[in-house]
Write a structure and sequence with these properties.
The protein is of the alpha+beta class. The chain has 3 helices and 5 strands; from the N terminus they run ββααββαβ. The protein has helices spanning 39-57, 67-86, 115-132, and strands at residues 2-6, 12-19, 89-96, 106-113, 142-144. The two termini are 23 Å apart. Keywords: Membrane, Transmembrane, Transmembrane helix.
Length: 145
């Protein structure tokens, strides 16, 4: 998700939001962050899919399976992966190369969780840049050196 915004001082800012597939680790959290990777989730998803297929294959011919039950099984299988994707952290970066006058290049970075929150935050950052020539210091983005 990319967006180009012109600030009130004339500088052009590029706002980028990118999905993080792993949780960003802060320096103070390094000792406490133990991640088993994606293997357990893939194995459990495979087991659940296998059991659903086994349930469908072993159903006798004379048993009527209502379509809503099949739909319910599909929703049950897809619920957690879709929820996982929608709640991943996104890194938002607002950067400007500066101009030839007195404004140096700037980069602001922040992390936001959730797809809808990211869209809202990108819109707020863009609006703040248009009005005040830089992102909100009290917002989720912070300047990087």
């Amino acid at each position: 998700m990319n967006r180009v915004v012109r600030g009130s001082d004339g500088r052009e800012w590029t706002i980028k939001a990118s999905l993080e597939w792993s949780n960003p680790i802060a320096a103070e959290e390094f000792e406490h962050d133990v991640n088993g990777g994606a293997t357990p989730a893939v194995v459990m998803g495979g087991v659940l899919l296998f059991l659903v297929v086994l349930f469908v294959v072993w159903t006798p011919e004379d048993v009527y399976v209502p379509p809503w039950l099949i739909l319910l099984l599909i929703v049950a299988v897809l619920f957690f992966p879709v929820r996982w994707v929608l709640h991943r952290p996104w890194t938002i970066t607002a950067a400007t190369p500066g101009d030839h006058d007195e404004n140096p290049p700037e980069t602001w970075v922040g992390v936001v969780r959730g797809f809808y929150d990211v869209r809202k935050e990108v819109s707020e950052v863009a609006r703040h840049i248009e009005l005040y020539a830089e992102p909100d210091m009290n917002g989720s983005l912070q300047p990087v050196e």
